[in-house]
Amino acid sequence: MDFIWILFAFICGLAAKTVSLPPSIGFLTAGFILNIAGYQADESLSILSDLGITIMLFTIGLKLKIKNLFKTEVWLGCSLHSVLWIVVTLTFIKILSLASISYFSDLDLTTAALIAFALSFSSTVCVIKLLEENGEMRTRHGKLAVGILVIQDIIAVAFLVAATGKIPSIWAFSLLGLFVIKPLINRVIHHVGHGELITLMGFFLALGSYELFELVNIKGDLGALLVGMFLSSHLKATEINKALMNFKDIFLIGFFLSIGFTAIPTLEMLGLATLLILLIPVKFVMFYGIFTLLKIRSRTAFLSALSLSNFSEFGLIVGALSVSTGWLSNDWLVILALGMAISFILTNIIYQFAHTTFTKHRGFLSRFERKTKLVEDNFCQPCQRPIVIIGMGRVGMGAYQAINSHGTNPAWGLDADKEKITWLHNKGMEAYYGDAEDIYFWESIDLSKLELVLLALPSVQDIINITKQLKAANYNGKIAAVARYDDERRQLEAFGIDKVFNFYTEAGVGFAEESLALLPQGMR
């Protein structure tokens, strides 16, 4: 059985990638195909799915700053949306009930409210995968979307506690002891080094926090998220995240497959799920309207709202709970699963055109912006240096130091991670916070002073998006970029980038040149 679902997941994932869709859509399809073909999900698939979600929430926590959750646009934006959504969705369900549409006509106010509540959440798995695949986790709109998801997860856990009567035990207060032993945990993380132990340490922390919180009757997934946030300030947090990345992606395949195994749908159920999908544009409009009302710029509001416009796996949890208590029929679980799967597919397809769609309709969307903007959305005018390095990771910092080592200091850095900018400033580097994929940023600075843009980014799609924005802002200077593989280098050169460096080849050349300098003059 294990080989069968791996085979179908691979074939469907490859088929999705071939037509330029995310592989996760193929995994969803594979689950439904296997279910219709008569296969049953075994325990290993459930374990894989649970592992994927736990590790994903832990890695989210590693990249999340607690203070971001207390921003008005996050907690108030999430709260306003939840309340407004439930009111609108209850009205929608009532209209369908008055129209005597099956399943809806049998709902009373309590069960209708439960369904509305379940559909108010956005999928953590879908949104995080989407942002990671597009390299947007650390962007302004990525952080906003993740903050909303975390608040939603906390609300979801609170609901489950109230609905199931699973009250945290008195021993839950002992979790405060984590603050006491944090120095010890930090020392152990530092001591494990950089090899396979750092990966094992990541698994230990993620799964250990899950079990620890379950012991005191608190949902384990929330524990993984909170412990990840607890350790996010550690210097090796990013390294642990990278070590777990591929494992998390493999495990999450189990989650997408398991959706298809929920139940075998009928055409009627598919039609009812499609009716629920009509609420997706409403969810987008609500998020966009609330974000702009809270003084978020239109581009950030648009991209965040679009990524959050889907239904959550939490809907299945509420559905299963309602079925077990007799509030809903088992068919509703299938309808909710279908609605969630379709919403995943739509979000993944539509988001591929998010940046170009915003650029095309920018004039209209900008009308909803408030005149006053949040401090975080006001870009600082960079210094008048002719070279900008975008992406101040290890490659970007190396380029910065090499260019400025001659004493003229012609280069400055740009990164979408505000915490990293603060760290760079403490290191004495001239770096600025800004989203290079945002046309507003390039329009807010004097491009005539720029002669060279270096794109030190790992994602080819990010490089292409930034290049598009530079051209749209009428930048006339040169552009250079890095690529990891030859096919990526050819793709970027064909797109019009002036110079593309193969990361591994150039590292080898630099290594050889530096090493040859050790030899006597006559032997070089």
Automatic annotation (TrEMBL):
<feature type="transmembrane region" description="Helical">
    <location>
        <begin position="111"/>
        <end position="132"/>
    </location>
</feature>
<keyword id="KW-0406">Ion transport</keyword>
<keyword id="KW-1133">Transmembrane helix</keyword>
<feature type="transmembrane region" description="Helical">
    <location>
        <begin position="83"/>
        <end position="105"/>
    </location>
</feature>
<feature type="transmembrane region" description="Helical">
    <location>
        <begin position="144"/>
        <end position="163"/>
    </location>
</feature>
<protein>
    <submittedName>
        <fullName>Sodium/hydrogen exchanger</fullName>
    </submittedName>
</protein>
<keyword id="KW-0050">Antiport</keyword>
<keyword id="KW-0812">Transmembrane</keyword>
<keyword id="KW-0472">Membrane</keyword>
<dbReference type="Pfam" id="PF00999">
    <property type="entry name" value="Na_H_Exchanger"/>
</dbReference>
<dbReference type="GO" id="GO:0016020">
    <property type="term" value="C:membrane"/>
</dbReference>
<dbReference type="InterPro" id="IPR003148">
    <property type="entry name" value="RCK_N"/>
</dbReference>
<feature type="transmembrane region" description="Helical">
    <location>
        <begin position="333"/>
        <end position="354"/>
    </location>
</feature>
<feature type="transmembrane region" description="Helical">
    <location>
        <begin position="301"/>
        <end position="321"/>
    </location>
</feature>
<dbReference type="GO" id="GO:0006813">
    <property type="term" value="P:potassium ion transport"/>
</dbReference>
<dbReference type="InterPro" id="IPR006153">
    <property type="entry name" value="Cation/H_exchanger_TM"/>
</dbReference>
<feature type="domain" description="Cation/H+ exchanger transmembrane">
    <location>
        <begin position="6"/>
        <end position="347"/>
    </location>
</feature>
<feature type="transmembrane region" description="Helical">
    <location>
        <begin position="44"/>
        <end position="62"/>
    </location>
</feature>
<dbReference type="Pfam" id="PF02254">
    <property type="entry name" value="TrkA_N"/>
</dbReference>
<keyword id="KW-0813">Transport</keyword>
<dbReference type="GO" id="GO:0015297">
    <property type="term" value="F:antiporter activity"/>
</dbReference>
<dbReference type="InterPro" id="IPR038770">
    <property type="entry name" value="Na+/solute_symporter_sf"/>
</dbReference>
<dbReference type="InterPro" id="IPR036291">
    <property type="entry name" value="NAD(P)-bd_dom_sf"/>
</dbReference>
<feature type="transmembrane region" description="Helical">
    <location>
        <begin position="250"/>
        <end position="267"/>
    </location>
</feature>
<comment type="similarity">
    <text>Belongs to the monovalent cation:proton antiporter 2 (CPA2) transporter (TC 2.A.37) family.</text>
</comment>
<feature type="transmembrane region" description="Helical">
    <location>
        <begin position="169"/>
        <end position="185"/>
    </location>
</feature>
<dbReference type="GO" id="GO:1902600">
    <property type="term" value="P:proton transmembrane transport"/>
</dbReference>
<feature type="transmembrane region" description="Helical">
    <location>
        <begin position="273"/>
        <end position="294"/>
    </location>
</feature>
<feature type="domain" description="RCK N-terminal">
    <location>
        <begin position="387"/>
        <end position="502"/>
    </location>
</feature>
